[in-house]
Design brief:
The protein is built from eleven helices and ten strands. Strands 3-4-6-5-7-8-9-10 form an eight-stranded mixed sheet, sandwiched between helices. Strands 1-2 form a two-stranded antiparallel sheet. The longest helix has 17 residues. The structure holds D-malate. The site of D-malate has 6 residues, from loops.
């Protein structure tokens, strides 16, 4: 069976499982993805230590509006690792392989955090393929020198203690004053992250460390862009989030109070409305 299966219907974005995964080959490995729904094509990319299931709630609620493809990026979920560094460009190439396998010429692409870095690489490499794109808790800036040093330390830690790395990293992605309230979501995210191989985690941490600055590219984009940011995001300060979008009429921004880096868990309704409104405007404006 090839098509994705959506089980359970609810209006609060919880309790869904998009179960069946399609696969294609990229280099020597399998890349897993799902396709579900009808309408404009929307490609959804997850972040570091996540997989395509982060979008299940959105997919289940919008299958009558959009034709949605959710991809497991290299080294995540059902997708293999091609080596020990997955650059954002290589990830973008893997996503292109999925689009070709599905005969998709053009789409809108939205990426969460690392998925946003891949989206930027894709937009630069294959501009003819996108009618719009979105950064969901993500940034066009490259890593600072301090962040690069953190990544190096992380790579060493992952080699010896991958589970401990995950247990320390995941809670820090949620708004710090909501950890009690979000306990179940944090635990679920930790469990999922522990399923990743150490090679996958390392290859992606290194790829993020190497990524280039795309802030000029963002500012000069000729297609509409969605930018969703949580004001309590511990990964990206409000100052940097605002700076990269300031004065850009082609960028639709949403800055949300009480939300960290994990809007799909922390404020699913608000975040998913921002995405569907962006899609609907693109359709109306052709
Ligand atoms: C992510 O959520 O994808 C990562 O935290 C992004 C990053 O580390 O830069």
């Amino acid at each position: 069976m090839i098509s994705a299966v959506c089980q359970g219907v609810s209006s609060n974005f919880e309790g869904f499982k998009i179960t069946t995964v399609r696969t294609t080959r990229f280099k020597r490995v399998e890349v897993g993805y799902t396709r579900h729904g009808v309408g404009e094509c929307l490609v959804l990319l997850h972040g570091f230590l996540e997989d395509s299931s982060m979008w299940d709630g959105f997919v289940a609620n919008h299958s009558d509006q959009f034709d949605m493809i959710t991809v497991d990026l290299l080294g995540h979920g059902s997708s293999g690792c091609t080596g020990y560094v997955h650059t954002m460009e290589e990830q973008a190439e893997a996503v292109l392989t999925v689009l070709k396998a599905e005969n998709i010429e053009k789409c809108v692409m939205i990426g969460h955090s690392m998925g946003g870095y891949v989206t930027l690489a894709f937009a630069e490499l294959y501009p003819e393929r996108l009618t719009g794109f979105g950064l969901f808790h993500s940034t066009a800036y490259r890593d600072s020198e301090a962040k690069k040093a953190d990544r190096e330390r992380a790579v060493n830690a992952i080699m010896d203690h991958p589970d401990m790395f995950v247990e320390l990293t995941i809670p820090r992605l949620f708004a710090s004053n909501r950890h009690d309230e979000m306990k179940a979501e944090i635990e679920a995210a930790i469990d999922l992250a522990k399923g990743h191989s150490a090679q996958g985690i390392i290859a992606n941490a290194r790829g993020m460390k190497e990524r280039k600055d795309q802030s000029e590219f963002l500012r000069k984009s000729s297609v509409p862009i969605l930018f969703v940011h949580g004001n309590e995001d511990p990964i990206l300060s409000n100052e940097l989030a605002r700076k990269q979008t300031l004065g850009c009429s082609h960028i639709t921004t949403h800055f949300m109070d009480g939300v960290g880096h994990m809007g799909h868990s922390e404020a699913p309704e608000k975040c998913f409305n921002a995405i569907s409104n962006f899609m609907n405007e693109l359709v109306v404006n052709g």
